[in-house]
Amino acid sequence: MIFRESLGMGFKLQFELLGFVSLSNEVRKADLEGISPFDIGGKVAEEIREIKENLLKRIN
Question: Which site from 9, 29, 30, 52 is most exposed, i.e. has the minimal number of CB atoms within 10 Å?
Answer without folding.
Answer: 9
